[in-house]
Amino acid sequence: EFESEELLLKDLNAEQKAAVKHFRGPAIVLAGPGTGKTRVLTRRIAYLIQNGHVPAQEILAVTFTNKAAQEIRQRVADLIRSRKMVKQLNIGTFHALGYQILNENAALLNRQAPIAIFDAQDRKKILKRLAVVAEDDLESFNDLIGKIKLFLVETPEDETLQLAMQSYADFLESQNAVDLEDLIYLTVQLLRSHDDLLKAYRHRFKWILVDEYQDLNRGQYELLKLLAAGSEPNLFVIGDPDQAIYGFRGADVHYITRFETDFQKARSFRLKISYRCSDSILQASASMLYRGKGGGFLEGLHKGLKIRLVEEASEKSEAEFVARTIEEMMGGLRFFSMDSAITQGNQAQRIQSLSDFAILVRLKAMIPVLEKALNDHGIPYQVVGHDSWLHEEPVRSVIEILRCTLAGQSYYLKEGAMARDVNGQDWQMLEQLVAEQKTVSELLELISIHFVQPQSPKEKKRLKRLFELAAPFGKDTPAFLQWAFLGHGQDLYAPQTEQVTLMTLHAAKGLEFNAVFIVGCEQGLLPYAIFKEQAADVEEERRLLYVGMTRAMHYLFLTHARRRFLFGQTYQLPRSQFLDAIEQELIEARRAERPPKRKKDDGQLSLFDF
Ligand code: ATP
Ligand code: MG
Question: What does the alpha-carbon distance between residue 152 and residue 574 come to, in Å, rounded to a whole number?
Fold first, then answer.
């Protein structure tokens, strides 16, 4: 059923081994990017089962993004041959954990599984519809309610606010729904108020592992504290305070720094070797982060290539540069021939596949121009993100109508939605469709034919993609809905496909790529300051760039544009101040000149040979 102990511990250094073999009691692994923290976590899961004889269903591994959860599941599946055991493991995001607990106890909340999940956008519409808040205050109340739940604070003694919260909560209940913040907020409340339930969950999840602990917020912390019973729980957490990037969403890096005070007898492990990034990438990112103020940098396994710093005239030529470079690197051009630092091993690090590339941006709004350039060059890509197109029209309405039909509710989210009104007759038809036991994909298609009229090619394409993604769910509508609300991404996205990955810096956390482009390295974007009322948290932004840079194994491109069209305006932003701290000798810079014409048949020329 398993790999042997030897195999589970192979390819681990002494510190990693010690952390994997740690058995009972709290423990923390604190180490920098690429030092194998996540590898320790996944090996440990397999080791607990194999050597500790821990039943798979007692293990709970939590992380922050679906992509990360999927990655962990995949890595564990590679170690444990029994598919059944992999299935029994509880691996997911905090949101998914909360959702599971709420669904399992839906009756206590006057709901029925599967519970629907609304987001902040829905909340605003509902508050408006309930007419409990003045129109001008909608935004701030919406925000405030979200924060109260996120930080688990007492509701302030404000009559309007309390009334709004109560009517909103009643409405959610009537719709068999909760909101995103409730996934933690209500779960904590539920466990706090039902001792028997809490005991049962503690009994069920005896081994808890948390990745990216530096990004924990108050609600998540309270949930963990509840589940990890006693003073010496089997709570194993890993993280890196230098990679804390979710302060803006209420994460508090202090939970990681005070872990050893929180859990007095905690063992602590440090890892010192980086297996991901080259020395030059490690050194450049550390100089950028620490600016000479302490904080030694990790050692990589190989010296590596210089970092490419590229200035372009506009966001369009920047995107064009990215697409062309990918094309040329894929074409096997001797792209880095002029670099003296090529070490022996680098032959093997040649780009093999489009999945070796990631393009990272600060804002989602920067993605379309890159998509266009990739399309122009015929380069396949996938956009990875939190608020994906599933939450945009017309897809959103189609999914919502399906959910309402399933729950036997009338469809209410009319405002701003693309769907036409759903009347009584329609309703009969919808219920008939569900009764006919059609597949999710067929249901979605029928709903879209009847109720939404996709206009643009983009909308049509989105709907088509939705039907495709729903296909693997067969007739399991509840599973599909959970996926649509939270993403669960187990089998739907294959990481090894021939596609370039496009995503935000935030979404890239925990991942790694052979070649990384960070576009838009400009003052105002990094740190982000355009349109922001409060000044951005500059240190958090700096860590965000650090996370981005340390995703790269071998090739790192930092690009910026002199002129950028964004949000309907043209900006002229200077280069990001963050780049100033990187040593000159680690950089190879190129200014926006006309791109050198490549001579046909001459595979020798590099883009940097100008
Ligand atoms: P991050 O802080 O970015 O999340 P991490 O510390 O979680 O990074 P991993 O993703 O676990 O690091 O590991 C980085 C890379 O190094 C992975 O490709 C992993 O397989 C590899 N790796 C880790 N440990 C070893 C080792 N002992 N020998 C060889 N490769 C290793
Ligand atoms: Mg990791």
Answer: 40
